Structure formats: structure tokens, C-alpha cells
Amino acid sequence: MLKRALSLSGCLILSIFSHALAADWPQYLGPDRDGTWADESVITKFPAAGPEVLWRVEAGYGYSGPSVADGRVFLSDYIVTKGEVSNNPSSRTPLEGRERVRAFDVETGDELWSYSYEQPYNLSYPGGPRSTPTYADGKLYVLGAEGRFTCLDAATGKLIWEQDWMKSYDIKESPIWGFSMHPLIVGDTLYALVGGEGSVAVAFDKNTGAEKWRALSSVGIGYCPPTLIDAGGVQQLIIWHPQALNSLNPQTGETYWSVPLKPNFGMSISPPRHVGNYLFASGIGRVGALIELNETTPSAEIKWRAKPKEAVFTANVTPIIKDGIIYGCDVDTGAMMAARLEDGQRLWESTIPTLNVEKPERRARHGTAFMTLHEPSGLFYLYAETGDLIIADLSAEGYREISRSSMLAQTNEAFGRPVVWAAPAFAAQSAFLRNDKELIRVDLAE
Hints:
By secondary structure, this protein is mainly beta.
């Protein structure tokens, strides 16, 4: 009887532990990097007064979203000490300041630790780091906008190891819009897009920073995070740089296949989405394609290439594919769109979720509403550039808004309009949102 009780107790502890892990948002796009949220005990319609803000803390400049793990919220930002943030799409702005990483208590918002270092910027859109902090096995991995990569103890903020990729890989100049990819960690290996000759993709030992292998050369590294998929009987590491979509052996860096896919301005940004035997990738310049993956060997071919007025050409927002429909925010029009996966046919578009106006007076390029699919309900939580948090039903028939609440001010600017461009995190029955002045926890519990 005692043994059975202990067994049941152990199962209960394991269940609670597993639930705690599932409730975290340890990296960009969540636990599985697919933009889905599995928590069942959350509201699917806001109360009349809007959702409650449980706490708020000050923040500096940053495009990077928060991450949540092990009872902590992690945020990176930039504190300007000299110069002024000015957003010119085609030229760099020099700044002096500090890049900073902080941890906060999930429940109270109290600051637990802070780590910072001096870091001059010379970037277009210089308002802070881009990459979301990534948590794994008690460590926090943070990429700065000028290529400084830091591994910290997530509990204390103590430095474990760091690298300056600009120096280590003989990179002559940082990407004009900054180092932006979100590192991928699988087991003891950390995958990253670094740069330099033969080292667009690099695999590191996550515990020491030692290089395991390097691969690929390109005119630049772009801004797209690495993705791991299972296809053709093997695991494949998907790397999209400005010239091609590539599949590598994650153990060695050997190339399995490569398909030319060249967005304008080197802007390979949103990670390709994997569903079934297909990969969908798209970017600025009306560049998009559906890649068909071989079922038995690691090889691929183009099923269709998108044409103007077809598909969805995404950049800031990673698209989500549900029930054979691609949902995303079009970089050229600023509208949210839906298109059929099988042939790219566009079904509908609306600027309500991105701009909160149906017919804007002028084209709003890069209109943004970060998308998260709430799996239990099938609804979407959207965090729009207007600073609004939205619950919506997206289907082949159209966009149906259920709730909208203004949460944060638009503290940044793009193409002459005010914006908030930072991906949200969903954990602990809450949304964690930031702009360039605040980080807030929004209560979404039932």
C-alpha cells in the first residue's frame, strides 16, 4: 500500500513538473517554436473593462520579446547614453549605450537580477536588441544587436561564457538591421546564424560556447532563426539566408538540399513554417514558395512559387498554418491575410488587426500583429503594432474580432506611423507585453 502511495505521489509530482514546463514560454514563439499556446484555463473573451494588468516595470528600447521560464520573466533592452534613436530604413544611426538583460519574478514583477555591458550601435532602426532571450536547462542565452552573444546563469545573472561574433568570425560589418535571429537549442547544441566566410550557420556547445561545426557562405546572414524539422526520415536544420533556403544535417552541417529563394534587401526574416511534407517561406519583394519535402530521403523541390496578389509575403510576423490555411501579415500592404496552402490562392485581407482601420489613407508597409494560436479554443491572440491585445477567430471565410483592449503606448516609429514591434510571451495564464518604456503582465486567467 505504501509503495502504491509513493508511486502515485511520484506520478503526481511528475505531472505537476511537466505542467510547469508546458506553462513556460522559454523562447521566441513558445515552447515548440510554433506560435501555439496550450493553456486551457484562460479567457477567450475580455471582460467589459478589458483584462487586468497585474504588474508593470520600466523598460528601455527593444524589439526583443520577453521569455518566461522557471518562475522568471527575462527581458533584454538598450539604455541610450549618447545619441538619439532615429529610424531611417536605409541608413545607420550611431548610438552609445548599454545592452541590458534582466530577470523579474513572474508573480510580483520584482527585479531579481540585472546584467549589462557597454555596447555602441551603428544600425538602421537602432532601438535596442532584436533577439528574444532563450532559456534552457538553467541557462539564459542572449544575442545583442551588434553580435555580442552571452550565456548567463538564469537564476543569478552570473556570466558563464560570452563571445563577440564580429571579432571571432572576422565580420566586417553587422547586418544593417542588426543581429536578429533567435538561437535554437537542441540537447547540448546551440544553433545560430553568425556570419563571415563559411560560417553563416554555426553549431556551438551550449554549455561552453565551443564551436562544433560551421557551414554555408552568403552575401549576408539575414535575420531568420534556424528551424529543426523531421522530414525524409531524418532531422533537418533549416537555414534561410538571403540567397537560398537550405537544409543541413544538424550533426555535421552537411548540406542536404538548397533551393534559391532571394528576398529583397537580404531580408530573410520569418522562419519557414513546416506542416506535413511542406515548408512555406516568404519575404519582402513578393518572394514566397511552398517547398515539397521528399517523404523518404532528405531532398526537396518547389511545389509553387508565389505571384503578386497571391499567398502572403511575411516579414515581421511569423505566419501560422491552420487547417490548410496560411495566416500572416503582408509586408507590402500591412494587412493580415489568409491564403490556401495547396496553391497559394489568397482568400481575404484586412488591416483591422494590424492598424485598427479598414482602409488606411496610405500604404502601411510592415503592418504588424504578432500571432499566437490558442490550441484549445482554436482562436488567435494577436499583439498589434497599435499596442492592442486582440482575441480573434481566423478562418478561410475571414477575420472576426472577438475582443480588443489597448495595453501599451506606441513608443516606436516606422514609415511615419507610431508602432510597437515586439513579440509577446504567453505563460502563467497571462500575456507578457513590452514597448520601449514598460514590460507588463496581463491577466488572462479564467
